[in-house]
Structure formats: C-alpha cells, structure tokens
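Example 5.3 — o-succinylbenzoate synthase
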Amino acid sequence: MSRYDLEYRSFSLSLADPLETASGTIESRDGFLVRVTREDGAVGYGEATPLPGWTESLADCEAALERAQEALDSGDEDGVLEAVDEDVAARHSVSLALADLAASSESVPLYRYYAPDSLVARVPVNATVGDGSIEETVAAARGAVERGFSCCKLKVGRRSVDADIERVRRVREAVGPSVELRADANGAWNYEEALAAVEAFDDEDVALVEQPLPAGALEGHAELRGRGVEIALDEGLLEHGVDAICEAQAADAVVVKPMPLGGLDVAQRVTTWVAEFGITPLVTTTIDGVVARTGAVHLAASLPELPACGLATGDLLAEDLGRDPVLFENGAAVVPQAKGLGVEGVWEA
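Solution (predicted structure tokens):
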C-alpha cells in the first residue's frame, strides 16, 4: 500500500472579461485541484488548468490524473509522475502537490525547497495592459504606474501596426521615460509588419517585444534581433525547445510558463538552461488559479536576478479557488514565507 493518497476535483473559474486568443475566446479557466495526503496527515496541493493550444485537453488531463491516482493506489510511488509525463497540466499539478507537501514537511517556503540557500522577500512583476483603444490603453498604463508598477506590457497585434505604434507612443508620453515598456504581439504579425513595429518601438524605448511572429518563424525572429528592442519567444519555446532557439539565435528572452512546461521543476531546469546561453527567462502564468499562480511566484523567487515577470494575473479572474497569499505592492510580488506554497483553505472553499 502507498503512503500517499491522491484526490482531485474539478473547478471552473469565470474570467473577469472574455479573453480573445488564437484558439478562440476563453470565458473561464477550467481544471482540477489536486490534493496529495501522506499517511501522517501532511498535505500538498497542486493545480491542473489546461489551456487550448498549450496543453492537453481537459479530458486528457483528467485521464492522466486518474492514472496518477491508480499508480499511488497500487503503491507505485516512483511511477506517479511517469503516469502523467505526457500530459503537462496534469504533471504540473501532481509535481506541485508533491513539492508543496515536501516543503511543508521541511517547514520551508516552497521557493527554498527548490533553492535552499535563497532568502527572497519580493520578486518584480509587470502590469499587463490589454488591447484597448488609445484612451483605454493610456488610462490602464497610467493606473498601473500609480499603483507602483515600473514595467508595463502592452498587448498589441489585433489592429494595424500603425495603430499599435500610436498606442505605444501615447503610453510613453503618459508614463514618462523611467517606466519600462514591453509589447506582446502573440505571433500576430508577418515579418514586414514586425520589422516596422520593432523599428518604431525602438524610438519609444520599448525594451522587449514578445512573440512578434508566429511560433514557427525562428529565422525571422533571429533577423529581428539587434535593432534596439529585445525579442522574446513564448509559444516558440514550446514548439522548438531551447536547443533550436539557441542554434538559430532567435531570442534575447524566453517566456517560461510552468503549466505548459509540465511543472515548476521542469520550468526551473529550463530557466537555468537558457541562462547559460545568455537568454533571459521571464516567468509568467497562463491565467491560472491561486494554487498555480502562487507556485509561479515561488519559482521566480527561486531564480537569481530575474527581471519583471508576468505574475500579477489574478485580477483577470472573476473568482478564484481561495484567498491569494501573494500581496502585490510597488511593482513587486511579496513572496509567501509560510511553509510550502502558503495557500490555505482551497480544498474547503
């Protein structure tokens, strides 16, 4: 018999506003909350929140969690992660629950379970500004700066390049020269459009453009580099992997999302790997519930000298799995110092 018991239950979290993506409109984030309990009563929590185009389907995720449950029921503790290895959201949840349990048992915050010598109070975060009108974009960016954010990421690519250039220009005028601006095109442009945007963004001191071209265009991304604005790959990391990106010299930075990578442990290995090649890792979420979001904060805290990361995403949800233990103030996430994840009451909520 196993010393552990794995349970899971489904959830559906409505978004505050529908999200338009390349795979369609998302109105809710649906997934599974996972609880692993050890025979001595110790508990760890995980979250599997599949995302179309990024992870396995919701049905495949549930089937994978069933396999993990069966593995533990049969006493195969070593095989529980192998049972979910091909299904990244499921693996994320199981590996997170096991790590939360282990860190709680050692009475250390989760980030110190991954980086024992670290003692981190805060990690820098960016504000995300949606793809609205010029007036809406300026107001949102100004509001973020007033709340203490020193880095704003603007969503672009759903209108003409000239319109996006004007939006960025007006935001720069509104927030001044000291605020870092980034843009995220989600692969919306062709090369000529991306080149025009990058050259114009350089004039506005935009630090970085995320996924300006579709994920497959490694050579195009390589050609966009060196023009004053750094190039970051998001979907491109999952499609090509680190080796291909480095060989093509296609990125200055990569966006590291623990859910589609299959867990915090995998994401940590990826960040270490890309940093060895001089590529900057940027930790962010996939609009997850509080369990996965808090895990991403701990991941960022376990890594040295990260720039602002995309972790302030909880307000994109209209409801959540439980109380958020992460406080955001002055452009930073205050890292929970309680044992494990620091997330409480989610199973009872």
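Remark. Residues 122-334 form a domain with the TIM Barrel fold (CATH 3.20.20.120).
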